[in-house]
């Protein structure tokens, strides 16, 4: 397994991704085209989880197919061990690494999810997770379902990006800076920054139902995937333990509100999430033991956030049930079957 902690140092995420965009005008050589691309994700990964949520909310299942990697991987690559024979049925690959090498034979960086693969060439197009969901929202509009919400409205984009920037640096990536800190000093600094940001969010969300405006936006998707992993993983495994999420009333109510909203909780696989972190990060958890707790049934308790007003989907409608092949397995989620 790879080493995630570098002794004596802060954790710095490598943000150099393949920056190609799939757009209506095809300016990077990749035009929007239904059926041409395959989203490769893993339910365990918070960055990939964003794409699963947005794809569901917008109804892009028929336009962009989905391949799911298993929750664990080795130093080389995520693998398709959930599929029969361990092979993705569309790409014919055992490892996501093969799609990267099909385009860049000497690709030097980590093999990450989410990734979008061009099916005709079986080569990776992009793994730039911050732009993948934005492009789903703005470039794939011809294939949105009837009633799809506007997750990236023009009038709110500046505020969405401002809020999302702080959420990313201090919370989404902040938990990793705690967990992968290589010194006490680095950990202490990361811990303080994380909980300063969570306190800011607690205050913000005590007065409004969603992060920006009165409907669900891209900003909410980005925060939710970290909150869903906080008590099961980050509190213990990453030592983010000033308090649990369920001890922060506004954030906990907000997280439950979203979890119980179609398109959010039905993408969450708590079994895979815990298995990923506790098994893959062997330098943090060398025994590989996956904890049995916490009790996750509290995700279904009433949140009362509707009292703050707001309309989850604005002028749109909720998505329908998940595609049968994409339903989270029974026992992996507290949601009823």
Explain this structure to me?
Helix 1 crosses helix 7, helix 6 crosses helix 8 and helix 7 (218-234) crosses helix 8. With 337 residues, the protein is mainly alpha-helical. The chain is built from 9 helices and 4 strands; from the N terminus they run E-H-E-H-E-E-H-H-H-H-H-H-H. Strands 2-1-3-4 form a 4-stranded mixed β-sheet. Strand 1 (37-41), helix 1 and strand 2 form a beta-alpha-beta unit. The mean pLDDT is 96.
Question: Could you describe the largest sheet, including whether it forms a barrel?
Answer: 4 strands, mixed
Mean pLDDT: 96
- Structural class of the helix and strand makeup? mainly alpha
Low-confidence stretches: none
> What gross morphology would you assign?
globular
Strand-residue proportion: 5-15%
Give a brief outline of the structure.
By secondary structure, this protein is mainly alpha-helical. Helix content is 34%, strand content 5%. The chain has a four-stranded mixed beta sheet.
Question: What is the element layout, followed by pairings?
Answer:
Blueprint: E1 37-41, H1 46-58, E2 65-68, H2 97-103, E3 115-118, E4 123-126, H3 129-138, H4 157-172, H5 174-179, H6 184-205, H7 218-234, H8 249-259, H9 270-280
List keywords for this structure.
four-stranded mixed sheet, Glutathione S-transferase Yfyf (Class Pi), Chain A, domain 2, 337 residues, GST_Omega-like_C, Glutathione-S-Trfase_C_sf, Glutathione_S-Trfase, 34% helix, mainly alpha
């Amino acid at each position: 397994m790879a080493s995630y902690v570098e002794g004596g140092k802060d954790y710095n995420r490598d943000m150099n991704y393949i920056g190609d965009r799939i757009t209506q005008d095809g300016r990077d050589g990749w035009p929007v085209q239904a059926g041409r691309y395959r989203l490769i994700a893993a339910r365990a990964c918070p960055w990939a989880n964003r794409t699963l949520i947005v794809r569901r909310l917008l109804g892009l299942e028929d336009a962009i197919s989905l391949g799911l990697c298993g929750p664990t991987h080795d130093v080389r690559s995520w693998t398709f061990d959930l599929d029969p024979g361990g092979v993705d049925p569309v790409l014919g690959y055992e490892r996501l690494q093969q799609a990267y090498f099909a385009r860049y034979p000497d690709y030097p960086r980590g093999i990450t999810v989410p990734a979008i693969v061009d099916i005709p060439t079986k080569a990776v197009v992009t793994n730039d997770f911050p732009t993948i969901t934005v492009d789903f929202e703005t470039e794939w509009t011809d294939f949105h379902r009837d009633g799809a919400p506007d997750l990236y409205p023009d009038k709110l984009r500046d505020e969405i990006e401002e809020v999302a920037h702080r959420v990313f640096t201090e919370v989404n990536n902040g938990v990793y800076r705690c967990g992968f800190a290589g010194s006490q000093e680095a950990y202490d600094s990361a811990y303080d920054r994380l909980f300063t940001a969570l306190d800011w969010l607690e205050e913000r969300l005590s007065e409004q139902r969603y992060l920006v405006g009165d409907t669900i936006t891209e900003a909410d998707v980005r925060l939710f995937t970290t909150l869903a992993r906080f008590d099961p993983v980050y509190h213990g495994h990453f030592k983010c333990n000033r308090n649990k999420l369920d001890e922060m009333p506004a954030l906990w109510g907000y997280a439950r509100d979203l979890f119980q909203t179609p398109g959010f909780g039905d993408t969450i696989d708590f079994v895979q999430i815990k298995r990923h972190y506790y098994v893959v990060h062997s330098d943090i958890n060398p025994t590989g033991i996956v904890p049995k707790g916490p009790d996750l049934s509290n995700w279904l308790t009433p949140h009362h956030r509707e009292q703050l007003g707001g309309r989850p989907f604005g002028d749109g409608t909720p998505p329908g049930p998940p595609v049968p092949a994409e339903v989270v397995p029974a026992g992996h989620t507290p949601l009823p079957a």
